[in-house]
Automatic annotation (TrEMBL):
Annotated protein name in UniProt: CinA family protein
Location of the CinA C-terminal domain: 7-158
SUPFAM superfamilies reported for this sequence: CinA-like
InterPro entries linked: CinA-like_C (IPR036653), CinA_C (IPR008136)
A Pfam family recorded for this sequence: CinA
Amino acid sequence: MSDTSMLAAKVLRTLEKKGLKLATAESCTGGMVSAALTDLAGASNVFERGFVTYSNEAKMELLDVSEETLSQHGAVSAETAREMAEGALRHSRADMAVSITGIAGPGGGSAEKPVGLVWFGLAVKGKEPRAEKRIFLAGERAIVRRDSVATALSLVLEAASKA
């Protein structure tokens, strides 16, 4: 079993023990967090739904990310990550939602937003949503995406453990 699979299994066990449901909102990972969870038996007990919102239009239509947020801060920003997580929570029956938006590469980066920059959002019912920034090894798309999945699962595990 891979490290990601073991982490996903721990997330599932913790969410089930706490009686919590999870939703995901993914951009640069394209559903990899959802896949990591649903690869495991028992996912249906806690995984409520996943949104893959790769385009800005999808972020606005499915998650209510505001056009103003996208134009002022861009798709890869704390503001967008928070709004994605809030939207996933609002458009699901989940108790918490995690979001991922970033630049996996190898192209698409800039001096301000380099390849490997990923923002994560976490929204938990009854709590203020938050965003966290990570910068992963640039130039290796697969590594950025793999590490983003592990980070998202770790954020969910931490939040679920405190619930």
